[in-house]
Write a structure and sequence with these properties.
about 70 residues, mainly alpha, 4 helices
Length: about 70
């Protein structure tokens, strides 16, 4: 699950980078515009991956506490 979340975060970062640098939405272009159902599903999945990635900040602390 962590690897999938990381891939989704990377996809989101690349998409936001292309919007910021070039004004081009890659996901929107591939899936029929920003408001298409498929684009919205992709955006939601990427957002869920980002939320899952928040747990990465806490994993090291948990591992360190269990090692003590």
């Amino acid at each position: 699950m962590d690897a999938i979340a990381l891939i989704l975060v990377i996809v989101g970062a690349l998409n936001w980078g292309s919007i910021g640098l070039f004004g081009f939405d890659i996901v929107g272009a591939l899936f029929g515009g920003q408001l298409s159902v498929m684009s919205r599903i992709i955006f939601t999945i990427v957002a869920l991956g980002g939320l899952w990635a928040i747990t990465f900040f806490f994993k090291e602390k948990i591992l360190n506490k269990t090692a003590e």
